[in-house]
Amino acid sequence: MRIGELGRRTGVNAHQLRYYEAQGLLEAERGTNGYREYDENAVLRVKQIRHLLGAGLSSEDIAYLLPCALGEAPELLGCPELLTAMRSRLQRLDDQMDRLAQSRDALARYIDAAARTGEQDYPPSGDACRESVPA
Length: 135
Fold this sequence. Notes:
The protein is mainly α and 135 residues long.
C-alpha cells in the first residue's frame, strides 16, 4: 500500500509516516516508480508507534522497544534490557514532573504576592506596572 492509504488506515499524516521511516521505526520498499510501498504489517506497526508515543517515549526509545512489541496496544515482552530502558524513561518523566511542580508552586507564590501588593495599589498609580506587562 502507498503512504496515502497507510495514512488513511492509521489516521497518521504522510509527513509523520516519513518521519517514522527516517527514525528507523517504519520500513517501506520503493516501487519502480519510486513511491513508498508498505506491507500490511505497517498498519500494526504505526498503531504500536502511536501508542508508545502516547506513553511519552521518544522515537529512540521506541526503536529499541518495537522488537519486543506484540499486538496493537502493544504488549511488551519483559526482557531485562527493556525493563531497564522503560524504568529509566519513567524516572526521567518523574523528574520532569517534579520540576514542573516546583515551577508551578513558584509561579503561584509570585501570583499571590502580586495580588497582595496590587490590592495596596503598588506602585502608587499602577501605570508603570501596566506599561511593562504584556497583555
